[in-house]
Write a structure and sequence with these properties.
Mean pLDDT: 86
Number of domains: 1
Oligomer: single chain
Order of helices and strands: HEEHHHEHE
Number of helices: 5
Radius of gyration: 15 Å
Low-confidence stretches: none
InterPro entries: PRTase-like
Distance between the termini: 13 Å
Shape: globular
Length: 149
């Protein structure tokens, strides 16, 4: 899948937007653009029903991939990029993660295509304790916005 094709999809669906003020991405870097999930999926906002249900979102994203060629092409492109990042890795130790809610359709689609587990990260509410412990030696590297380039 070509970068030009993905840019055409993002422009035609108006999913790509430059940001006036940079935001902090899940990987810790600053982002200067935004990819609108609703406009990329073109599912009439149905994805929003699954904002607190990662399993439901995964099923929905895979369904949309079969119904919407543009979304399928975006997932194919991201899958190719993730596959390149994972070259030489022991796939039995790999997983794809995505943050609640707007990352899930993309990360779930990529995980499905690569036949890897999907780790759905939930937003931590103020005052909540951490719900995930990273064991020393484990490495979790988010495939986030900077990897979409």
């Amino acid at each position: 899948m070509s970068y030009a094709r993905i840019m055409k999809i993002l422009q035609e669906t108006e999913a790509y937007k430059d940001l006036d003020v940079p935001v902090v991405l899940s990987g810790g870097d600053l982002g200067i653009y935004f990819i609108n999930t609703e406009k990329t999926m073109q599912d009439g906002g149905a994805w929003n029903e699954f904002k607190n249900d990662a399993t439901g979102m995964t099923s929905h994203a895979i369904k949309v991939m079969f119904e919407n060629q543009n979304f399928a092409d975006v997932i194919e492109y991201l899958t190719e990029k993730a596959d390149e990042l994972l070259k030489g890795e022991d796939r039995s130790l790999c997983m794809i993660s995505g943050g609640q809610t707007r990352d899930w359709p993309f990360s779930a689609g990529v995980a499905s295509q690569l036949d890897l587990p999907h780790l759905a990260l939930y937003k931590q509410k103020p005052g909540e304790e951490d719900k995930l412990e990273i064991i020393d030696g484990d490495e979790v590297r988010p495939v986030d916005e900077k990897d979409k380039e």
